[in-house]
């Protein structure tokens, strides 16, 4: 979905629409409270690390999960996911032969870094992961899902957008009230440049005192000379503009951009138009890792990818949170 503009209005200055939608937000809030309060269906015998968010939309969870897989490599980490956008119910282990429309784009991307299990019921995915020998389970999303008992809750925050207007869906972008979400969080991972990190602290004093990892998403060069290169960039992620800005920061000449909704499928008509537009502009098509796994193999060969990885000047807050397991 594309978020309405008023969701990102200044806190306390979002206009009349949030006020009109506040009764529906109250209904959502109560439903979320009841859901979170339900007891878990399954308590694994191994630690469970949940990587989620309080705001709807892309905040950068996938790179955080990728970093956890690397840092916990000696603990046999397995990822579980609902497989958003996938048609298969599961539980099943994601294999390279699967397609994004079967298991979801994020699980297919993460499967390149470690074992990934998808199931519409997260408890079933956790049971399958434990049975397959997982020493640690990393839950990709599901912070508000009570099915699986969690050992550590990591909440990812986009430092540039913060928590929007601070209101609950549909009056704002929050899945639950901010205070309720922060109370359950063991660690905040705030992603963005230093200026955005400082602004986040000023705009949202509620995060003060919470354990917090300040990090950013850094591009992997992969040997590609981006400086001065003419590219047509396209992305169907939570915030495509962030990807386009990263390309420009790498020195690419971004002659055109195309934004799609998060997890958007790429059908023949869209791919044909992208190819034609790139040829007309004399530009190279480039996209994100998550978008690339949704492309057909024959088209994928014509597109270059700019991957990003989590970087931090101080990993101590994350290591302290992981020490609980």
Automatic annotation (TrEMBL):
This is Tetraacyldisaccharide 4'-kinase. GO terms for biological process: lipid A biosynthetic process; lipopolysaccharide core region biosynthetic process. It comes from Algicella marina. The keyword Lipid biosynthesis applies. Transfers the gamma-phosphate of ATP to the 4'-position of a tetraacyldisaccharide 1-phosphate intermediate (termed DS-1-P) to form tetraacyldisaccharide 1,4'-bis-phosphate (lipid IVA). The lineage of its organism: Bacteria, Pseudomonadati, Pseudomonadota, Alphaproteobacteria, Rhodobacterales. It catalyses: a lipid A disaccharide + ATP = a lipid IVA + ADP + H(+). Belongs to the LpxK family. The gene is lpxK. InterPro entries: LpxK, P-loop_NTPase.
